Structures are given as structure tokens and as C-alpha cells.
């Protein structure tokens, strides 16, 4: 009976999340903080981390593109705070990247990377080798010889693959993303959050349910931005691999409590693309495309905000029997734009 009652209460609470809406204020700033992540970096021993081309390295290209993107975003959106996870050539750990993004309460996380193809495996016939073998035993044992084909195995660079790809976290990693959303709720970072919002349990069914709603919202927004980025690349003649979900999880995407994408800007193993990725014109074009995509994303959010005019919240039942709404309202106010539907 107790389990049944708990299940009913949980279902009612979750239903409240999906059906309880309050009007959103108009003309709100839909993005306040954007986090730019330059992939990889120089290791402590001075070595490069990431893919290698014929003469350049992924970590250097990522930093150069990220710097241009940061400058462009700051120029286009002076009211938005732009955070860099790796402002220098030195490597930043994956955990620290996510911590920086979550600590600064980012509204958007964009990670810059460079793609590469593994070498193509080849084998070449080089002749025959005479091999000795025996049959029988004792006095009947006989010696034989035979010719065995010999091959040389080697690899050659895969230089033909080209184009861009933009990733969001894999659907099978949604649970990890939800945990990140729940554990990095902005109010939990406040020392006196219990005094402000009440004795809220982040593991309570109500809080978990709202986090699931937020995770779905972030997934929708990440997918939309990834599509917009690839669309901008196509407009300037880049070969677009489209938005994708990688089967192997991308840790920084699922550990950041916000819409998150990872942009593969080109293949360093392709000579033409390596030159493009290292050129000032190429890096500027990449930064411009991503900035334009962010602009389209902002307009999309503003349009949804105006048309939907709704913001999800859920009241939480306190042990005192009093309905305490402020904590979860504050969670939703961190991303004040409404829950989006395509």
C-alpha cells in the first residue's frame, strides 16, 4: 500500500511538471552565458594532444578558431558573457572543462575540434617463402617443402575524407546528462540555498522529474543548434556531414548542464582541409559560420518565447505540509525560456 501511494504521489508530481505553466516575461535575454571550449591542448611535457596532420596539430587549430569565435561573439553580443575553458595553449582536463561551464552557469556550450581519419591498411604480395614440413612418424616420417605466399603489411594516410560534423550527446547518455543537470542546478552552488529555498532533496522524485524535463529541453536545443551550424557551413561550400550523435559518449557534452554541441571543423588528414584549417581565412570563416548559427539559434529561442509564452515549474511538498515553489522556480528561471517543441 505504501509503495502504491508513493507511486501515485510521484506520478501526480510528474504530471504537474508537464501541465503546470506560468507566463514568461517578454523580451527576456535568452542567452546570458556562452562557453567556448577549444579542444585538446599542450600537455605538461610540451607534447601535442589530439589529431596530427602533415605539418600541424589539432590543439593549435582548435585554439585559433576558438579565439576568433570568442572575439566574434563578443562583438556581436556584448551583453552576453563569453567564457573560455582553454584560453591558452595548455591542456585543460575534461572534468575541469565541464566544471568551468557549470560553475559559470552557461546557457550554451560549444566545443571546437578537428577531425581525422585513421590510416588505410594495405597489404602487398612480395613473393614466396619455402616452408619445410613433415608427415608421418618414426621410419615413415617424410620431409616436404612448399611455397607460402608472403605479404608486406603497411598503412597509407587517408587523405580523401573531408567535411564538417556537429555532435550532440548520444541518446544512450541521456541519463548522464540528467544527472549533470540535477547536480549543477545553479541554486545548489549557493551556500545558503536551504535557507532561501527550503530543505530540498535534489534526489527527490519531483526534482529528478523536473531535471528530466530540462534534459529533454536541452536535447532539443542542442539538436537545433547543431543543425543550424551545419547549415551555415553548407552555405559557404563546406561538405556537411550533418548533425550527429556519436555511439561512444562525448564526456564534455553529457557532463555540462546546458545545451551542448561539439563542432568538428574539418579533416586535418586531408591536405586541402589542413591548409584551410590553418589559414586565417579558413579560421575566420569557421568562426563566422558558428556565430551566424548562434544568431539563428537566438532568434529561434526568442520566437519560441514569444509564441509559447510558457515556463515550466513544479511545486514541491515540504515536510511541514507547506507548498514551497521558490526552489524549483529558481531552477527553471536559470533557463527562463520556455520548454520548446519542434
Written description of the protein model:
Helix content is 42%, strand content 23%. With 342 residues, it is an alpha/beta fold. The radius of gyration is 27 Å and the shape is elongated. The protein folds into 2 domains: 21-117 and 161-334, Aminopeptidase (3-Layer(aba) Sandwich); 120-156, no CATH class.
Work out the number of β strands. 12
Terminus-to-terminus distance: 40 Å
Provide the helix percentage.
40-55%
Q: How would you name the CATH homologous superfamily of the largest domain? A: Zn-dependent exopeptidases
* Helix and strand pattern: HEEHEHEEEEHHHEHEHHEEEH
Radius of gyration: 27 Å
Using the coordinates above, name the CATH class of the largest domain: Alpha Beta
**Average of per-residue pLDDT values:** 77
CATH structural fold name of the largest domain: Aminopeptidase
Topology:
Layout: H1 2-19, E1 21-23, E2 33-38, H2 58-76, E3 81-84, H3 94-103, E4 108-115, E5 120-135, E6 142-156, E7 164-168, H4 174-183, H5 193-197, H6 205-235, E8 240-245, H7 251-254, E9 260-267, H8 271-278, H9 280-308, E10 310-312, E11 316-317, E12 323-324, H10 326-334
Record keyword descriptors for this entry.
2 domains; six-stranded mixed β-sheet; Aminopeptidase; two-stranded antiparallel sheet; 342 residues; elongated; alpha/beta; disordered C terminus; disordered N terminus
Task: Report a brief summary of the structure.
The protein is an alpha/beta fold. It has helices at 2-19, 58-76, 94-103, 174-183, 193-197, 205-235, 251-254, 271-278, 280-308, 326-334; strands spanning 21-23, 33-38, 81-84, 108-115, 120-135, 142-156, 164-168, 240-245, 260-267, 310-312, 316-317, 323-324.
